[in-house]
Amino acid sequence: MTIALGILANDGVAIATDTQIGIQDYMKSHAAKLVAARFGLNDAKKAAIALTGAGTVGYLDRIKADLLGAFYNSPISSGVEFQVYLDHYIHNFYQNHVIPFAGYHPTERPDVALLVGLEYDGEFRLLATEKNNCRRSMHYDAVGAGAMYAHILLGRLYAPMNIDEAAMLAAYVVFHVKGGCPETR
User: Could you say which DSSP state residue 151 is in?
Assistant: First the structure.
């Protein structure tokens, strides 16, 4: 069971995920599901990105590599531009890599959902994808099998906060989502 969530704070974006990668009744391992990058630390322009998600592992790895490449190597210079890029990217990715498997049984179709935390020059943005849809999340969001439970907890506990408080809340919610799902015990 995967849970990945993001919380938009006053001074940043907290992204958290569990570490378990698994295929039910087949394999489970622990690996990095979260990747992050930044540039311009000493320049006038600064940017940072954190990516995580849920779904077919090989597809997620490909998407993370492509998005990090776009972050570093394209002329994108704002959160709005990255959101437009992500919207086009995810639509094309589904068109080329997921829709061709539409005739397969639902459990055999590839699927991905992403969470992206961004900072461009002090502007913070939390983006999420579901199927071929990209949305901007205004406070928090979650993807994965534990997303519904995470949304319930975040709906009860979220209030405007700083990044340290958001990081603690994110860890708390991931802990409870993982502990509250029978398949993860």
Answer: H
* CA proximity to 110, closest of 122, 119, 101: 101
What superfamily does domain 4-179 belong to in CATH?
Answer: Aminohydrolase, N-terminal nucleophile (Ntn) domain (3.60.20.10)
- State pLDDT tens for residues 43-64: 666 899 999 999 888 899 899 9
Q: Classify the C-alpha dihedral 137-68-96-4 as positive or negative.
A: negative
Q: Is the dihedral of CA 92, 94, 99, 100 positive or negative?
A: positive
d(CA 128, CA 116): 6
Assess whether pLDDT exceeds 70 at residue 1: no
- Please give the model's pTM, rounded to 2 decimal places: 0.87
Average pLDDT of the chain, as a whole number: 88
* Amino acid 184: pLDDT: 45
Six-digit token string for 16: 């958290």
Per DSSP, the residues of 63-116 read: HHHHHHHHHHHS---SHHHHHHHHHHHHHHHIIIIIGGGTTS-GGGS--EEEEE
- Please say whether the beta carbons of 145 and 54 come within 8 A: yes
